[in-house]
Design goal:
Layout: E1 2-3, H1 9-14, H2 17-25, E2 30-35, H3 41-56, E3 60-65, H4 68-72, H5 76-92, E4 101-103, H6 116-131, E5 139-141, H7 144-147, E6 165-170, H8 190-210, E7 214-219, H9 232-248, E8 253-255, E9 262-263, E10 268-269, H10 274-281
Parallel strand pairs: 1-2, 2-3, 3-4, 4-5, 5-6, 6-7, 7-8
Antiparallel strand pairs: 9-10
Helix pairs in contact: 5-6, 8-9, 9-10
Length: 286
């Protein structure tokens, strides 16, 4: 599950250890903790507790950095800034469980879409920086165009990967659409299902060619940010096909996002959304 525990002010304030235990009890195995703030004590005050809570309850934490400055302007100065950020984070957590993973960049977009070489340049720099203190930490890199599986082939594997590397890709990160042909989903026709199968096939082919495993860092069961006009039953049907397809291919994933399913103010699951949640995280609904 993608979570905003360390990304938004509300997420930081509302976070409790109960979030971790509730997620674990409901079948969530890992969380992708998205971050945009500087790597300083103000951030670590929250992030330290979240990582420790996750590890204490066997919920795998993945730290994911937004790196807006670099994505908007991939200059040497901003590459240096991102390297300093990851250097501080890597030093902070150098002795943490190997279950903690580092996701180097949340979706390469903006200026980077036209400069794939800059993406490879920053990955080389960041991996080198992290490996100074974390020689065997799992690191995740992702391609351009909002982490499109079709761009995995453009990635240059960093020289310091040490065999502890994954590639992350996204699709339907903002949910399906009734009109957008690239992510069309109406009734789940074979043509619509083929769009999902095609991306999975691209990832599997890249895995075969490189020997590097992949995972999906974000997909959303409904178009919650753009109309939210899929019924719960329609969301559940889409979610079930996505889950079965990815699981059948042996590709892990994170769902976008926690607040669609869990009320962090009351620490209760949103009852209306449980059929969608169960379609993803349970083989059978209770």
């Amino acid at each position: 599950m993608d979570v905003d525990w360390s990304k938004t002010a509300k997420g930081k304030e509302a976070y409790r250890e109960q979030c971790v235990t509730d997620f674990k009890d409901m079948g969530v195995s890992h969380v992708r903790i998205r971050i945009k703030d500087p790597a300083d004590e103000a951030l670590f005050r929250y992030l330290d507790a979240q990582i420790d809570d996750c590890l204490a309850h066997q919920l795998i934490p993945v730290i994911a950095y937004q790196a807006d400055e670099f994505k908007n302007s991939p200059t040497q100065e901003n590459i240096d800034q991102a390297a300093a950020w990851w250097g501080a984070v890597a030093e902070r957590y150098r002795d943490k469980s190997p279950l903690l993973s580092f996701d180097l960049l949340i979706e390469a977009t903006d200026a980077l879409n036209k400069q794939p070489e800059k993406l490879n340049e920053i990955y080389e720099r960041l991996v080198t920086e992290i490996r100074r203190t974390n020689p065997e930490r799992i690191i995740m890199i992702s391609p351009r165009l909002r982490s499109d599986a079709a761009c995995l082939s453009e990635l240059k594997v960093p020289t310091g990967h040490n065999g502890y590397l994954m590639a992350e890709w996204h699709f339907y990160a903002a949910g399906p659409s009734r009109t957008n042909k690239r992510k069309l989903w109406t009734t789940g026709t074979e043509e619509e299902k083929d769009k999902i199968r095609e991306k999975i096939s691209l990832a599997l082919q890249w895995q075969k060619e490189t020997g590097i495993p992949t995972w999906v860092g974000a997909w959303m069961p409904g178009n919650y940010n753009d109309g939210n006009d899929y019924t719960i039953a329609e969301q559940a049907a889409f979610a079930k096909f996505m889950t079965d397809s990815l699981t059948g291919a042996g590709i892990p994933f994170a769902v976008n996002s926690d607040t669609k399913f869990y009320d962090r103010e009351t620490n209760e699951w949103i009852e209306e959304m449980l059929p969608v949640f169960y379609a993803i995280y349970r083989e059978e609904s209770p």
